[in-house]
Amino acid sequence: MLGALAVAAVAPAMMAIAAAPVAAQEQSSSTAYDWANVRVGGGGFAPGIVFSTLEPGLAYLRTDMGGAYRWDAQKRRWVPLQDGVSEGSYMGIESIAADPVDPGTVYLAAGMGARLPAAIFRSTDRGNHWQVTPAPFAMGGNEDGRGLGERLAVDPSDNRRLFFGSRHQGLWSSADAGAHWQQVAGFPLKGLGLPTVRRQTHGGLSFVVFDPARKGRIFVGNADPAGARLYRSDDGGATWMALPGGPDARLLAAKAVLGRDGMLTMTVNDGIGPNGITRGEVWRLDTANGGWSDVTPLKGADAPEGGYMGVSVSARDPKMITVSTVDRRRPVDTVWLSRDGGRQWEELWPRSTRDVAESPFLDFDGKANFGHWIAGLAIDPFQPDHAAYVTGATVYETQDFDKPGPMRWRPWTRGIEQTAVITLTSPTGGAHLVSGFGDIGGFRHDDFAVSPPRIHLRPFLTNTNTIDYAGRAPLVMVRSGNTHARTVPDTSLAWSADGGGSWSGLHVPACAPRADGSLCPEATGDAAITVSADGTAFLVETDAPQISRDRGATWQRVSGLPSRVRVTADKQDPRRFYAVDFAAGHIVRSDDGGASFRQIAGRGLPADLTPLRSANREDPAPILAQPDRAGALWLALGGALWRSSDFGESWRRTGQAIRVDRFGLGKGAPGSAEPALYALGTKDGLRAIWRSVDGGTQWTRINDDQHQWGLRIRMVSGDPRLFGRVYVATDGRGLITGDPAKGE
């Protein structure tokens, strides 16, 4: 990436892709698979929604870690547009721009963070195929400020000209539909440069708006502290002027929209969001005479804390404008509607209802409220009754926006699966899949085509970090997790007697105070939990690991087991548990049902087991136990795959042809004694999802170039009851399930 002062034109290679970058031709055999999402519906933050102004029923949605989507009006569902992307950073969409001249052309500004790859995607067939140009400027599609925008805009008088307002490196332009970019030398703000502190970002230039009624006129908003809030060019970007007046200079420009009456409506706040905004305003600029008007719906000392972000104007009636609040926690975030250009406002929350039958998890703690992080808001330009807004958990739409009476909102999410899946398990009985998600806890999935009726509750943990089931009593399950608070309010542990349908909390004895004042792992959600093969014993990895044989009524300390290791229970033998002692560098095993552990030989393993160490509570346990055979163990060490058939006493390496990142086990092929192995790994230079049916000697690729999901994959697992079935936990595109294509 170029620094903040770079001004030379950049001409990176342009890459043609079909629904995403095409990987090199397969160098290994492959098995065709059919892939589908396990349905949840929405689930994450989609910072921006854009309707085409040329084609009825055409809309685009950008998400912060799950790529972009297009609304297919005929099929009545959202279509993911980047499933073929193999670069994970490209799944964080900084901005989206629908061409104002050609309805088939659309652009994405894609890049997850300042230090990660960024690119401009261009499609002339509504996102079915893309041309991708690596960008010379940094993006932050999953950073603070991702609700600002839109930063990318197409000139309506010359639709090969694009402008992009970057976070760190000023204003950029392209004269050839995004193939080449150069910094706009005449723009007065050159940017603050790339951040020097981890997790720091800049708001930068928050939006670019062209005036379709006046060729060469462009407006650019500024969300950095220095400089004016709004700049204008009347000569196509050659020269610029700061527009005087308007909002308090301490407030930062967030979003803007220009009506056909020449009025520009802009939201400004004291932060870039999506969190941390305490004050905001709404202003309108008469672009004909330069006059400003403060049209903030609620102002003054009694105004509730929070700001304003989303903004839209009706294409049919420019006096009909709408804005959304952000971070207004009391009483609730809402949408405001004005029919007279902002002189009078109606708050829509009081007369709105929400029917969340398609995504019932939204009602998990009572009736779903209006939402939070309402950064994106849009009125359909062809249907003023139709409007939509985004939240941190879903996208809502209504067909009552321009009607009196109750306003009914429903999730507009069919086809959208924008979630981070932390963990999953496929037990030997009960539901075939039980999941652990970030932010929305997780589910038991009885029907993959239906959003689950219940979220994991009692306790509700926003993140589920570990799930385990008893191999010989699979309806007995345990889980651990955390909340967004520093400490978990009640307990971070739970167990289920019905395969994850309902849960009961588990409470371990309070830990002794730590000398350094840090918190105990069970208080923060860092303590993982494991269940024995017969479902009678729960082992929790507290500072001093503890075990209960009476469903948490009493606990005993486990001897010989270090703290903060990940324990694996044998799936057939309830006496056996396994772990890696990272400090001592060897395998330990329990032969007495988890009461005590001792070192075992571990013959054949490398002497250095430190690559297995992890302090991340979301990482899976390093040792996997084969569901159908006692003492059959697998582990991946430094990319190499190892197996044991004698309870960990001896190990041999397999899978020399592949370097494994993540792996899981499934039911073996018909007539085979070997489990099916599934892995995210690299073979012959190709990173992909692979399957082996012969114990790891030979591997075939099972995904393809159209199904890569940014290769942002946290877990891969087979199904112990269905040969060929594989589950993929993605970080942004939800839960994926795959089955061999018919005839395979």
Automatic annotation (TrEMBL):
So where does this one cross the membrane? Answer: none
CDD domains the UniProt entry points to: Sialidase_non-viral
User: What keywords does the record list, in alphabetical order?
Assistant: Carbohydrate metabolism, Glycosidase, Hydrolase, Polysaccharide degradation, Signal
**What's any GO biological process attached to this entry?**
xyloglucan metabolic process
**GO molecular-function annotation terms?**
hydrolase activity, acting on glycosyl bonds
- InterPro entries reported for this sequence: BNR_rpt, WD40/YVTN_repeat-like_dom_sf, Xyloglucanase_GH74
* Xref: Pfam families: BNR_6
Supply the Gene3D superfamilies for this chain: YVTN repeat-like/Quinoprotein amine dehydrogenase
Q: Which residues form the signal peptide?
A: 1-24
PANTHER family the UniProt entry points to: OLIGOXYLOGLUCAN-REDUCING END-SPECIFIC XYLOGLUCANASE-RELATED (PTHR43739:SF2), XYLOGLUCANASE (EUROFUNG) (PTHR43739)
Record-stated family: Belongs to the glycosyl hydrolase 74 family.
Descriptive protein name: Sortilin N-terminal domain-containing protein
Tell me the organism.
Novosphingobium lindaniclasticum LE124
